[in-house]
Amino acid sequence: RVSPSQSGVFQTESDLRVERFTESVSFDRRLYAVDISGSIAHAQMLADVGVLTPDEASQIETTLLAIKAEIDAGEFEFQQALEDVHMNIEKQLVDRLGDVGRKLHTGRSRNDQIATDTRLWVRDAIDAIDARLKNLQCAFVGRCDADAETVLPAYTHLQRAQPVLAPHYWLAYVEKLERDRARLADCRRRVNVCSLGTAALAGTTLPIDRHNVALKLGFADVARNSLDVSSDRDYLLEFAFCLTLIAEHLSTWADEWVLWSTVEFNFIKLPQQFCTGSSIMPQKINPDVCELVRGKTARVIGNLQSLLVLVKGLPLAYNRDLQEDKEPLFDSFDTVSACLELAAPIVAGAELKVDSIRSRLDRGFLDATTLMEHLIKLGTPQRTAHHQIGALVKQAMEQNCRLADLPLETFQALNPSLDESVYEVLGVDKAIAAFQSYGSTAPGEVKKQVSYWKEQLNLD
Ligand code: ARG
């Protein structure tokens, strides 16, 4: 039992159990395409600096591309005995090219190779997630015109607070997703740095050209310190964090819509294609997809936690512990990617139950704060106005009526500065119309924001 990384220094073969315990090819095979891109760039650079002949580099490139085509087609057999994706591909290369294949690993270590592979992979993963985030933003913005007139109660403490326009809700999520995209773009700058050429940890005595490799692989920069970069997984943790925050945002949305789809709320009808039934209760149309978007957040948070604990206290530079970074990384990516993919059609296809929402908008005194601000505009200090409107609400509660149903005498008994104009701000529609501030739910403001996002996202 000779491990592929065992050199002549070993006097004994490894224990039978080591192969299965240390292998990573069962999960890191997923890196094959970026591993091959990295190897081709490395071989070309070795030829550029005269370490390989151009012919040797071209044989390596052609053979690696042939191996890639076989893996793409599912015709390549990865072997656990060869430990990881790197050794599996290199072994094939050597089998096919002999000594020329044995030259590929010149001036390179698997330590800088795996860091390069994961950087390339994360870079693509960021771009894929960004596209899905944008797609979900489009789904939210895409419903703004149809829902333009719909007023929804907004909540604090899950108690009715103030009325808002439905597009104001949708754009709240668009903003969260935009920050997620900005975070990814920022993370990408630190991901997009070339670690190849740092070799095991100290660099190499061979005349490699790291800037040449970086250029070939589209990296914007070259890592300065070989010791730092061979231990660095910050870029991967940052990405895992970005994914976690996306999952949290999706979870908030999913939770809200699970609640809104209940008989009790009756605000929204989720598209049936994204609901499932019950094995016993025939009437059930359950929001399982939204529930699982919420539920899967747990594993994404868990993965981030695993990664943070994994790197804690590791001495410089490479440690085999780092092999454990891949499964949480892949799982977080796959999970968040799937959640985003499903969220978009749910958002686009859900129907607001406008009659049901409207029929209860008079409950919960959504216009109370607007009335208080009306009083402030007439010269009453805020604290006084707050207290007086509270007293009015108490009266309305006792009479089981809306604020708008109270007679003018009641208002004037409370504060003589109140006149007929009070009725101009009562009721949710008037309350909405009274909003003015930048970023508020004022119809004009919301309209401006919808146009802004349509332009940002190149819609219509
Ligand atoms: N499979 C390893 C990892 O994922 C990369 C190889 C480096 N291994 C080593 N023994 N130096 O981190």
From TrEMBL:
Keywords: Amino-acid biosynthesis, Arginine biosynthesis, Cytoplasm, Lyase. Residues 365-432 form the Argininosuccinate lyase C-terminal domain. SUPFAM superfamilies: L-aspartase-like. Pathway: Amino-acid biosynthesis; L-arginine biosynthesis; L-arginine from L-ornithine and carbamoyl phosphate: step 3/3. It is found in: Cytoplasm. It is an enzyme of class 4 (lyase). Its EC number is 4.3.2.1. The keyword Lyase applies. GO terms for biological process: L-arginine biosynthetic process via ornithine. One of its GO terms (cellular component) is cytosol. It catalyses: 2-(N(omega)-L-arginino)succinate = fumarate + L-arginine. InterPro entries: Arg_succ_lyase_C, Argininosuccinate_lyase, Fumarase/histidase_N, Fumarate_lyase_CS, Fumarate_lyase_fam, Fumarate_lyase_N, L-Aspartase-like. This is Argininosuccinate lyase. It comes from Blastopirellula marina DSM 3645.
